[in-house]
Design goal:
207 residues; alpha+beta; seven-stranded antiparallel beta sheet; 35% helix; globular
């Protein structure tokens, strides 16, 4: 009887853990728009339809932002000394997730809908179906310094630009922003000390 209880308990734990991880479809990497077309059409937009962004499109976007593009684990965005210190979170109605590039998945970090907190006082963007929150975890540097804080911000900027261009190529709207409720997000996203909360992007279809 004791063995049966242990088996049931273990099974329940596995179910709980699996429910916290979303395996995304493989990114298609086949947008028909060229880089120069995306640059020509790129524009900030703060008005969004409430239409949901499908997981396939989200996968394509996240891969473009900071996904793995080579067998050796290198990323679509450069990072200083290949520290790969940029950590990206997806905030949507069903909770908040960290994007894990190595297996193209989302790992839930909060059950709360944090979109209003990411929007902050700029409530006009709060209806976007999802927000990307981009951070720099300075703990991934071999040595932390004022220079590493600068480079962390620069690397987040590369990812933000990737998001802007990928959104254009995928028919999505976005705008890079620094406004957000840092206190709430630091707690709910479970950010660690010296993980800089720098930029966010509301993402959705055009109104």
């Amino acid at each position: 009887m004791k063995k049966i209880i242990l088996i049931i308990a273990s099974f329940s734990v596995c179910i709980g853990l699996s429910a916290q991880t979303v395996k995304l479809p493989a990114p298609k990497k086949d947008a028909s728009m060229t880089l120069y077309q995306a640059l020509q059409q790129r524009a900030s937009n703060r008005e969004f339809s409430e239409k949901a962004v499908p997981d396939q499109i989200l996968s394509d976007l996240l891969w473009a932002a900071v996904g793995i593009n080579r067998p050796n684990g290198m990323l679509t965005a450069p990072t200083a000394m290949n520290s790969q210190e940029v950590r990206l979170y997806v905030c949507r109605e069903d909770g908040a997730y960290e994007y894990i590039a190595k297996d193209n998945s989302l790992v839930k970090v909060s059950d709360k809908d944090l979109r209003n907190d990411v929007a902050g006082f700029q409530t006009g963007v709060a209806n976007a179906p999802l927000f990307l929150v981009i951070t720099a975890d300075l703990n991934r540097y071999s040595r932390k310094s004022d220079h590493s804080r600068v480079m962390g911000a620069v690397d987040v900027g590369y990812v933000s630009q990737n998001v802007c261009l990928a959104c254009e190529a995928l028919g999505l709207s976005t705008v890079p922003r620094a406004t957000m409720n840092a206190e709430v997000l630091t707690k709910e996203l479970k950010l660690v000390e010296d993980q800089l909360l720098l930029i966010n992007h509301p993402v959705g279809y055009r109104e």
